[in-house]
Amino acid sequence: MPCDLLKSFLVSLSRRKPLEPEGEQSTFNRCLGTLDLVALGVGSTLGAGVYVLSGEVARDNAGPSIIISFFIAAVASVFAGLCYAEFGARVPKTGSAYLYSYVTVGELLAFVTGWNLLLSYVIGTSSVALAWSGTFDDLIGGVISKYFEENAAMGLPGLAPYPDVFAAALVLLLSGLLAFGVKESTQINKIFTAVNILVLLFVTISGFIKGDISNWQISEEAVINATTINVTDTANVTSMFGVGGFFPYGFGGTLAGAATCFYAFVGFDCIATTGEEVKNPKKSVPISIVVSLLICFLAYFAVSAALTLMMPYYQLSEKSPLPVAFDHVGWGPAKYVVAVGSLCALSTSLLGSMFPMPRVLFAMARDGLLFQPLTKVTAKGSPAIATISSGVVAAIMALLFDLEALVEMMSIGTLFAYTLVAVCILILRYQASSSEDTDLKIPESRTKFSFLKPPSTPNSSTARTVTILTIVSIASVIALCITLTQAIEALTNMEAWSIVLVCIFALILVVNILLIWRHPQNPTKASFMVPLLPALPLLSTFINVYLMVQLGGDTWIRYAIWMLIGLVIYFIYGVRNSVQRKRLRTDHTEIETVSSKTDKDILKEEKF
C-alpha cells in the first residue's frame, strides 16, 4: 500500500501539460509584431551594462581583447537563445521556460523553473530601479541620497542605508503603465531603445574618430612606466595590469572576461513570455530572439572596441568608463549624451525585467499552481492583477533591501531556466511521434557507417532510452564542472587526480552524446529547429552549470531558502489545485464510467 501511494504521488509530480489543452483559451490581445519583440529583447538585454561593463572587464580581465570576450559570451548566449527560439516556434504560448518544461518534463520541475524565473525578474527589476535612481541622483548632485540619509537612515543589517523612495515609485509607475496596456508600454520601450542605440552609435563613431590603434599595442615597458609612479614592485604592477599588447592578461584573462560578459546577454528570454500576445508567434518569436542577440553583440563589440581605442585599458574607470574616456580625448561635454543614453538603457532594461514577470505569474496561476486571482486580465488583454502584484513586491524590495548580496541569486534563477530549456529540447526532439504528425516529416539523415545506423522512427522505448541518457549526461556535466573548477585550482599544485576525474567525466559525456545521436528524432517540423543535436543543447548546459558552480556558498544558501518557500506553496496549494491534475482525474473517471457500462446500457444509448 505505501508503495502504491508513493507511485501515485510521483506520477502526480511528473504529469505533463498537453500542447493544446482542452478548454484553455487565450485571453490576451495579439497586438505585437516582430519589431516590437526585437525592441523588447534589445531593450531588456542591452541595459546599463554596456556603459559600465566594458570598462570593468577591459581594465581587470581582458584589456583590448574584451572584443573577443564579448564574442565568446555572445556565442554561448546564442546556444541558449536557439533552444528558446525552437520552443517559441513549437509552443507559442505565455510562460517561457516554465511552460516549456511543463509540456516536456513535468509539473514539479515546471513549478521550480517558474519559481526561479520569478526570482530572477523580481531581483532584476529591483536592482535596475535602484541603478536608475542612483544614476539620476548622481546627475543632480546627490540631492535625493543626502536627504534620505539625513532624515530616514535605517542602518539595519540586510537593509539598505536608507529607503529608496524614488526607485520604489518608479517601479510602481511602470507597473501601472504595463497594467494599462501591452501595446502602449512596448511603444514607449521602442522609443527608449531607439535613443539608446543612437547614443551607442555616437559613442562608437566618436571612439573610432578619436581612437588610436597604438592603445591595442601597448608594450610591457609602457605599462610599467605608466603605472609605477607610486609602486616599487614592478612584478606586482605586471600582475595587476598585465603585460600590454592585445592580450595583456593572456587568453585566460579573455576567457575570465567572457564569463562576466555572458551576463550582459541575459534578458532575451523575456521575448519567450509573449507567445499569446504576438500576431505570428511561430515566426516572430524565434526571429526576434536571434536578431536581438545579434544586435546586442554588435553594440557591445563596437562600444568596447571604441573604448579601448580611446585610452589605454589600464587607465579605464570601472564605474564610469565612457565619461572618463571622453575627457581623456578632450570631448568632456559628451558625458551628458552618455548620461542620457544610460538612463534610456536603464529604462528599457527595467521594462524588460517587469514585462515577463506578470506573464509567468499568470501562466502558473492559470494552471492552478499559484493563486487564481492572478489570472485576471483587462479588456486590453493585460494581466493586471499579476502586474500590480509583482510590481508591489519589486517596489518593496527596491525600497528597503540592500540588493547587492541578492544579485547573484538572480544569476542562479536565469541559468537554471536556460539549463532546463536546453534539456527539454533534447527530450522533446527524441519523443515518439504522434499519429497526427505523420505528414510533417523531416528528411532523415543517415550515417555512412552501418554500425551507427539509427532506427527509422522514434518509439516509446527509444524515447525512454534518450531520457535516461540525458539524465546521465546532466549528471556528468555537473560532475565535470565541479571537478574542472577543482582542476583549475589544482594545476598550480600539480594534483593529477582532479585532471584524471575531468577526463573521465568528459569521456562519459562524449559517449552519451554519441549514444543519443544514434537514436531517431521526432519527425515533427517547426519553423525553427536547433541544429547540431544533441551536442549544442548539452554544450549550452555545460556553460550554464559551470557559471552556476562559480557562485559563492552564501548565494546558494539564500537560493535554498527561496526554493523552500516555493516548494511549500506548491505542496500546500499547487498540488491540490493543479488544473492538469483535475483534467486527468476527469478523463480517468470518464474511462471508468464507459468501461463499467453493460451491453444493455450501450444499446439503450444507441436507440436514443
Automatic annotation (TrEMBL):
Entry keyword Transmembrane: yes
Localization in the cell: Cell membrane
Gene Ontology cellular-component terms listed: plasma membrane
Listed InterPro entries: AA/rel_permease1 (IPR002293), Cat_AA_permease (IPR004755), CAT_C (IPR029485)
Pfam families given in the database record: AA_permease_2 (PF13520), AA_permease_C (PF13906)
Membrane topology of the entry: Multi-pass membrane protein
Domain Cationic amino acid transporter C-terminal: 528-578
Domain of life from the UniProt record: Eukaryota
A biological process from GO: L-arginine import across plasma membrane
Molecular-function annotations in GO: L-arginine transmembrane transporter activity; L-lysine transmembrane transporter activity; L-ornithine transmembrane transporter activity
Catalytic reactions of this protein: L-lysine(in) = L-lysine(out); L-arginine(in) = L-arginine(out); L-ornithine(in) = L-ornithine(out)
Keywords: Amino-acid transport, Cell membrane, Glycoprotein, Membrane, Transmembrane, Transmembrane helix, Transport
Transmembrane segments: 35-54, 66-87, 99-123, 165-182, 191-209, 246-266, 287-316, 336-362, 383-403, 409-428, 466-488, 494-516, 528-549, 555-575
UniProt-listed NCBIfam families: 2A0303
Family: Belongs to the amino acid-polyamine-organocation (APC) superfamily. Cationic amino acid transporter (CAT) (TC 2.A.3.3) family.
Protein name according to UniProt: Cationic amino acid transporter C-terminal domain-containing protein
Species in which this protein is naturally found: Amphilophus citrinellus
